[in-house]
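Is tryptophan placement plausible here? Inputs below.
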Amino acid sequence: MTSTPLVRAFSGVQPTGRLHLGNYLGAIKPWVEHQHARENLFCVVDLHALTVPEAIKSDELKARSRNVAAAFLAAGIDPSVSSLFIQSHVREHTELTWVLNCVTPLGWLERMTQFKSKSEGRETVGTGLLDYPVLMAADILLYDSQVVPVGEDQKQHIELARDVAVRFNHMFGETFVVPQPSIPLSGARVMGFDEPTVKMSKSIAESRPHHAVHLDDAPEKIRKSIMKSVTDAGCDYDPATASPGVVNLMHVLSAVSGEGIPSISNRYTGKGYGYLKQEVAEAVTAELAPVQDKYRRLLDEAGYLDQVLAQSTAKVRTLAEATMTRVRHAVGIG
Ligand code: TRP
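Reply from A.M.:
I modeled the complex. Tokens:
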């Protein structure tokens, strides 16, 4: 009997800021739902976080990385089918980055839209910010990843990883699997509750208390942010014409409960927005309660989290070492 090997997917998440409902419904929940159909590598990319030094205080980065790993486990990442690890724990990421740096034309990096927007108006910009996409290419290529589930904003980075892989293979012989550009996540695109025309954002949430619902918020805070969410003065639940805040609430409810938008829209037609907000608040607090409970337990009894991280690290390190052996051989080092 032969079975087709599972497609290997690599996902990276930065340990900057607190995880919110947009991260959960847009990425974490769909990843958890798909994890048994693929081989998954979930990586907390702490080396990428170093490119924004002011967002991180050194004593905090370690804790944040662990918190993100705990949040993923709490949300249902199953360590028997998914590897969950911290980028800096596998040294090969940095070694491969250096080798890839040497085959990546500078112009490719200077063109990156994220580099341009993040470096705009700054007096000094760390070389790491420019090199960010090469480190990301190394993350992906190190594990022969076939697919990389990312949002729209990361597509250019995946294209670069492909281009680097193709160029390296051309120069040194077949070494890397060329990853698929990206597969869209089926998750919801959650907008800010206080400004439903922008995507819910970690950095905006830092200064605006009711922009987001965070995974570690108390239920009262979650309810309050949802009840205060911006809607409009009318009463329109038609997804084609309703205001962005109402559409956002319906999407959140749909993502949590699985009920379709037309059905939600029908149920509320003629009713005030307060009723919808109430249901969304209840649904979100109920959805997050077990996740929050598990999250707290994982951080209180760190033993299990440490064990999962150690086992995953050992497993992925074997893959990383095999790739680096090929790479060193190809370029003549080591
Ligand atoms: N740049 C990604 C982001 O900000 C995070 C990331 C780092 C990543 N390495 C990756 C995503 C590899 C996918 C694959 O969202």
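Short version: Residues 10-12, 14, 45, 48, 136, 139-140, 148, 150, 154, 157 surround tryptophan (CB under 6 Å).
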